[in-house]
Amino acid sequence: MPLLTGHRGLHPGHHQEDPRSPLLPRPTETPALKGLYYRRVRKVGAWDRSPALDLKREMLVNVGGRRYVLPWSTLDEFPRSRLSRLKLCRSHAEIRQLCDDYDEDNQEFFFDRSPSAFAVIVSFLAAGKLVLLRETCALSFREELSYWGIEEAGLEPCCLRRLLRRLEERAEQRREEALQRAEAGRPAVLASRWGRCMNRLREMVENPQSGLPGKVFACLSVLFVATTAVSLCVSTMPDLRAEEDKGECSPKCYSIFVVETVCVAWFSLEFCLRFVQARDKCQFFQGPLNIIDMLAISPYYVSLAVSEEPPEHGERPGGGGGGSYLEKVGLVLRVLRALRILYVMRLARHSLGLQTLGLTVRRCTREFGLLLLFLGVAVTLFAPLVYVAENEAGRVLEFTSIPASYWWAIISMTTVGYGDMVPRSVPGQVVALSSILSGILIMAFPATSIFHTFSHSYLELKKEQERLQARLRRLQNCSAASERPLLDDVDDQVPEGPASPGAYA
Question: Potassium channel tetramerisation-type BTB domain location, by residue (predicted)?
Answer without folding.
Answer: 61-158
